[in-house]
């Protein structure tokens, strides 16, 4: 790995090969409990530093050659490793971070087009103030003086601020405004697909959803959902029905992989599959089917209510939404395996790869595996894709892994996400990136 010379962090420290190696080792070591640790699993020595109770903190596969060069030895071929390096888990941290990681977390230091405005610029639950980094000379130079990120508890309030020109850019229009935001904003809006999907994950530790009966119920549930109707009535046509577990904007996407018929609405077939499951293991009615969602952002209540009503009407079981106050709360229960029902899930790509939509969400022990899915054959197919010699062979294996998920349905695919963004009269040149986030450095503010 070669890094460019004479680069500096915003605190003046040099960005060196050692910066990368120290940061990757810190991210991988189990004692540091980093949620992105698994991203370093392909590197030789990761297994040693990631063992429970291990005090090892350096992977043998990372070696510094000189200030601007380090080597990475992988355990096995990784067909998309070059794509992964753009993800934030691989971003280096300055030497000062390791002296007090808690303080660094409150006042992070980077090397990009922006920097924290001052000590304490992150006002928790209120806003984060960034200013332009004048020393940055990379390809994403800021065309504005800085960005203030406002943190809203209610997305509808954010939308009203946008209309009043009190907010310049709103990344996602709330569900309540999807029917009229284009009329409200005109050419100050966009509607574009990005690398994201929405699913409902159903944990295997729930009594009705494991084994052969559980698989049949998952298929029945998926077929009982009329995605087109929910998208039309609730989401005002701003999504596309999902037919797989990835996203159409990704290279190698194939929407009609084997078992994709399990995502098509078929009320009669759904009932038939449910009855087959009943013959194997009767449904325990003491466990009401719920879908957990966070109420603090995204406007999820309306579509969750619509989907659970369809399930209730088409399968004849009790079904309803379960509201959590914050995203943090619902994620805590999902990650720790304490959910009492299904959960609003899905994925926003870390980097543009089919593999990234399956490994973090459906492999054993993965941090975002909300259903606690465990299928060695599926993981073997993913490994086959990683070890492929070319993109076509890799994507073919990933498509086959995708079809395995569509048979087992650890999560029910609902729709592919689209960026529904809006901006005020005070800014221009607002664009969305491949993963649906605004390209803030490009936004221009009127004087």
In short:
It contains 14 helices and 15 strands. It is α+β, with helices and mostly antiparallel strands and 447 residues long.
What features would you highlight for this structure?
14 helices, alpha+beta, four-stranded antiparallel beta sheet, globular, 447 residues, seven-stranded mixed beta sheet, 30% helix
How many alpha or pi helices? 14
Helix proportion? 25-40%
- What composes the largest sheet? 7 strands, mixed
Overall spatial form: globular
CA radius of gyration: 23 Å
Mean pLDDT: 95
Could you give the order of the helices and strands? HHEEHHEEEEHEHEHHEHEHEHEHHHEEE
Low-confidence stretches: none
According to DSSP, the number of beta strands is 15
The amount of beta strand, in percent, is 15-25%
Describe the structure.
By secondary structure, the protein is of the alpha+beta class. 30% of the residues lie in helices and 17% in strands. It is built from 14 helices and 15 strands. The strands form four sheets. Strands 7, 8, 9, 10, 11, 12 and 13 form a seven-stranded mixed β-sheet that branches. Strands 3, 4, 5 and 6 form a four-stranded antiparallel β-sheet that branches. Strands 1-2 form a two-stranded antiparallel ribbon. Strand 4 and strand 5 form a beta hairpin. Helix 7 runs antiparallel to helix 9 and helix 13 runs antiparallel to helix 14. The mean pLDDT is 95.
């Amino acid at each position: 790995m070669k890094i460019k010379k004479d680069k500096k962090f915003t605190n003046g420290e040099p960005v060196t090969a050692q910066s990368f190696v120290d940061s990757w080792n810190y991210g991988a070591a189990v004692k540091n409990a980093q949620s992105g640790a698994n991203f370093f699993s392909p590197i030789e020595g990761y297994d040693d530093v990631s063992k429970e109770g291990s005090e090892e903190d350096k992977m043998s596969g990372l070696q510094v050659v000189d200030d601007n060069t380090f080597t990475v030895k992988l355990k096995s071929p990784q067909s998309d490793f070059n794509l992964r390096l753009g993800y934030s888990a691989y971003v280096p941290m300055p030497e000062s971070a390791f002296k007090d990681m808690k303080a660094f977390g409150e006042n992070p230091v980077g090397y990009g087009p922006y920097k924290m405005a001052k000590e304490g610029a992150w006002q928790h639950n209120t806003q984060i103030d960034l200013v332009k980094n004048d020393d940055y000379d990379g390809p994403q130079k800021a065309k504005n003086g800085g960005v203030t990120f406002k943190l809203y508890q209610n997305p509808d309030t954010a939308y009203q601020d946008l209309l009043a020109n009190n907010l310049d850019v709103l990344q996602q229009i709330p569900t309540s405004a999807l029917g009229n935001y284009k009329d409200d904003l005109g050419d100050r809006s966009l509607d574009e697909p990005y690398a994201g999907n929405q699913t409902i994950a159903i944990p295997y530790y729930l009594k009705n959803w494991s084994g052969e009966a559980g698989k049949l119920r998952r298929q029945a549930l998926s077929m009982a959902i009329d995605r087109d109707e929910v998208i039309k009535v609730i989401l005002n046509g701003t999504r596309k029905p999902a037919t797989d577990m990835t996203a159409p904007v990704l290279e190698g996407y194939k929407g009609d992989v084997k078992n994709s018929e399990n995502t098509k609405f078929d009320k009669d077939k759904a009932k038939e599959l449910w009855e087959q499951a009943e013959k194997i293991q009767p449904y325990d009615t003491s466990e009401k089917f719920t879908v957990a969602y966070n109420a603090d952002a995204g406007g999820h209540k309306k579509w969750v209510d619509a989907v659970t009503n369809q399930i209730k009407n088409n399968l004849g079981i009790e079904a309803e939404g379960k509201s959590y106050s914050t995203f943090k709360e619902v994620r805590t229960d999902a990650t720790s395996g304490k959910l009492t029902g299904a959960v609003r899930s899905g994925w926003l790509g870390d980097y543009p790869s089919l593999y990234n939509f399956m490994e973090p969400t459906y492999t054993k022990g993965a941090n975002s595996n909300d259903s606690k899915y465990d299928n060695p054959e599926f993981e073997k197919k993913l490994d086959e894709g990683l070890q492929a010699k070319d993109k076509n062979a890799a994507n073919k294996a990933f498509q086959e892994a995708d079809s395995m998920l569509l048979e087992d349905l650890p999560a029910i695919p609902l729709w592919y996400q689209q960026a529904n963004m809006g901006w005020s009269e005070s800014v221009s040149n607002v664009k969305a990136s491949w993963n649906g986030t605004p390209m803030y450095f490009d936004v221009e503010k009127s004087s």
